[in-house]
Amino acid sequence: MKNILLHVCCAPDGTVPLIELVSERNNVIGFFYGNNIHPYEEFLKRKEAALRLAELMNVKFIINNYEPELWINSTREYASEPERGKRCLLCFKIQLESSAEAALKLNCQFLSTTLTISPHKDPGLINSIGKEVASRYGLIWVEKIWRKNSGFQRSVHLSREIGLYRQTYCGCIYSFRGDELSDE
Ligand code: SF4
Question: How far apart are CA 91 and CA 93, in angstroms?
Answer without folding.
Answer: 5
